[in-house]
Design a protein that fits this description.
heterodimer, A: TIM Barrel, 8-stranded parallel barrel, two-stranded antiparallel sheet, B: mainly alpha, Outer Surface Protein A, domain 3, 2 domains, about 10% strand, elongated
Chain lengths: ~280, ~260
């Protein structure tokens, strides 16, 4: 059985037992490291057991890399401790901010993509990669406000971050769909302008219409199955770039494990079709 | 340019709490009215963390009351770090001063026990003491050694029967039948395997464990236990403690030589 990560699932505590016995080839799991910033207990023993059988990815939500403060040292040290302990195949974070003035806002907040912001975030990524002793991936955000004062489009900003720090990208197709809908740009154009070699992981998730504004404002709730438009864009992306580790994210309205497995199998099928297509092209 | 960015963060922070005027300078014409999405996510993220941590309080108050109270706490004491497991330490004391909770003064104690349960649940793992090591300890060494407590051990004292009330609410049916007794009670939490055990303990064992937690010798801990309860059966305290997994190892006490001389 290959242990090469193909299609994976966000790991929820209610699914520990199912995840542990999941026999799927290429299955892997992702967790938020902040949920494991505790000394011991069942959370760590479950994750340890799962890590013994499956590849693991640490997907941070709290480093606030786009903030106007340096990454928090205790946070970086706690993250490094988890990286050393669990040896994840990917460590990722968001292009967003959340920490400022001693307060942490449990969200991923936007900012103007200025030249100053680029320099600042480059130094934050450098500091993170140095502390962890490895490359990280940066995820594109879901946007709900159109800011002005940007010096770069988001794709150029992300590409520039990669060029200057050596980091890679975690491309969240659902976030692209949400932002494109809310801010009125083309999701296809966005995805097409990301260089293939920078993409180290892909996220797929479900979104929901805003309770008051409906489809005019989509919200990245992770509370529904992956939508058809996200699947179409994903298929199109994989056809262009080839297979990449792909995660089904679900954080709300969490269904039975088997339902998540079905979505994961759909991604795995698209990935293996791309793989065999590539092999056929090489053989020809 | 950096200065401009700082002004943006100030404006965004102000807009998150109430005042959107400063942020309007950064909004593109035709921006969707998406500020509420950020506000809602921030508010619900912190409240959801309190819902998970203070589950017994919520069971007793109902979800609507609890979420409203938690929302007020979040305003006054927002999270300072992204590990939401560690958020809410001051919620029990805040609840004691929250006017709408005045007719349920036991809620603060219930919240304190919820908090200690999580502390025990997420504490470090450690090997347990082999009882034989204790049995083989020569009596003359009782004043030189202490028993190190398992990192998951937590104790708390109350001037009413809050621990019994908390324990009854861990069962889906017994909670409503339990009345709050007026007698003082003491609670012990310890994790064995994946389970946190919570039990009401007598004043003797409480004093023994509290003494060890401060690094006292075995003899000092025994004296504290007997001072708290002259009828305390020390042998039984040790046997029960070993069975519960309260102890990890015997540890020599570092004494200052000037005091020994």
């Amino acid at each position: 059985m290959t242990n090469q990560p193909a299609a994976g699932l966000g790991l929820k505590p209610q699914h520990y037992a199912d995840a542990l016995s999941d026999p799927a080839a290429g299955a892997w799991f992702e967790v938020h490291p902040e949920n494991y910033f505790c000394a011991g207990g069942p959370r760590h023993s479950h994750l340890t057991a799962i890590r013994e059988r499956h590849p693991l990815s640490l997907h941070g939500v709290g480093l606030s890399l786009a903030g106007d403060e340096r990454p928090d040292r205790p946070h970086l040290l706690a993250l490094r401790h988890l990286v050393d302990r669990y040896e994840p195949f990917v460590v990722s974070e968001h292009l967003a901010w959340s920490r400022r003035g001693g307060t942490w806002r449990p969200d991923l907040l936007p900012f103007p993509r200025t030249r100053a912001a680029l320099m600042r975030i480059v130094s934050h990524i450098d500091e993170t990669q140095e502390e962890l002793g490895r490359r990280i991936l940066i995820e594109n955000p879901s946007l709900y406000l159109a800011l002005q004062g940007h010096d770069y489009p988001e794709t150029a900003f992300l590409t520039e971050l990669c060029a200057r720090t050596g980091c890679g990208l975690l491309l969240d197709v659902n976030n692209v769909v949400v932002s494109a809908n809310n801010l009125g740009f083309s999701a296809e154009d966005y995805l097409d302008s990301i260089p293939s070699h920078l993409i180290g992981e892909i996220h797929l998730a479900g979104h929901s219409p805003d309770p008051h504004l409906g489809d005019a404002l989509l919200v990245d709730t992770h509370g529904a199955p992956v939508s058809d438009d996200v699947w179409k864009l994903y298929q199109r992306l994989i056809t262009r770039i080839g297979a990449r580790p792909t995660l089904i994210e679900r954080d709300d309205n969490i269904p039975a494990y088997v339902d998540l497995q079905l979505e994961r199998d759909r991604a795995a099928h698209i990935l293996s079709a791309a793989g065999s297509h590539r092999q056929a092209a090489h053989a020809a | 340019m950096l200065h401009d960015d700082r002004a943006f963060f100030d404006a965004f922070d102000a807009a998150l709490t109430a005042d959107e005027r400063e942020l309007s300078a950064w909004l593109a014409p035709g921006s969707p009215p998406g500020l509420s999405v950020y506000r809602n996510t921030i508010a619900s993220g912190a409240v959801d963390a309190l819902v998970a941590t203070f589950a017994t309080v919520m069971m007793m108050t109902g979800e609507e009351w609890f979420r409203a109270a938690a929302g007020e706490y979040v305003q006054a004491h927002p999270p300072c770090e992204p590990a939401l497991l560690a958020y809410g330490e001051s919620f029990p004391t805040w609840l004691a001063t929250f006017p709408p909770a005045a007719d349920a003064p036991y809620l603060s104690g219930i919240a304190q026990l919820d908090w200690l349960w999580w502390q025990s649940w997420s504490a470090a793992d450690a090997e347990l003491l082999d009882g034989a090591a204790l049995a083989g300890l020569p009596p003359e060494r009782l004043s030189d050694v202490t028993l190190a407590l398992h990192p998951s051990v937590r104790i708390a004292s109350f001037n009413a029967g809050i621990p019994s009330l908390w324990l009854a609410h861990q069962s889906p049916t017994r909670g409503a039948e339990q009345v709050l007794e007026a007698e003082p009670e003491h609670m012990l939490f310890v994790r064995t395997g994946a389970q946190v055990e919570g039990r009401v303990i007598a004043p003797g064992p409480l004093a023994f464990i509290a003494s060890l937690a401060k690094g006292a010798s075995l003899i000092e801990a025994a004296e504290s236990a007997l001072a708290a309860d002259p009828a305390c059966a020390l042998h039984q305290v040790l046997v029960t403690g070993l069975a519960l997994g309260l102890f990890t190892h015997l540890s020599p006490i570092e004494r200052n030589p000037r005091h020994d001389d």
